[in-house]
Amino acid sequence: MSHYIKNLIEEGEHQQLDFKYEISDSKKIARSLVAFANTDGGRLLVGVKDNGSVSGVKSAEEFYMVETASTLYTRPEVPYTTREWTVDGKTVVEVIVHPRVGKPHQAPDKDGRYKVFVRVKDQNLLANTVLIKYWKRKEQQSPDGVFINYTEKEDMLLKYLEQNGSITLTKLIKLSGLNKRKAEALLVDFLLLNIIEMVITETTTFYRIKDMD
Question: Is the pTM of this model over 0.70?
Fold first, then answer.
């Protein structure tokens, strides 16, 4: 069944697939598990280099490091399953993570502080407070939908997006005069209404009108 893994490798790293040559840091792997769980789920292939070449798992210790990552460094714990494959005589471990159910998962950042991570393309990035509040509101959302008071602030935001294409939270606070909490709530309302979308990059997060095509 090595063709199964080879087909995955041919896809390259993306939002639901990550390659690991080896596992030497359980905390770093914990961030990958959390990011997959908080986004769309995904697969981690251990024993595969970034360029897609199969190196194979070095020792059984790497199995335990995945377990350590999940049990000790994810909150709440990220469940996962593993499958072992032989590719060209080398062992590749497939770690399968399903999308989260309930509370967002957290893992330690480089400074040891527990944060929420998401998977964006082939990167694990920090989730901001707007996204976390959006998740919470969405889970509590009434079957009747979302209702907002359409004030000059909402009108200003839409007109700005139509004219400029995108906006950051900092820019919205400056333009609207709203405090951070209220500006975040405004963005969450528009996200819930499916009017705008959030774009997370390594350096910034911005919001733009959602393309409905």
Answer: yes
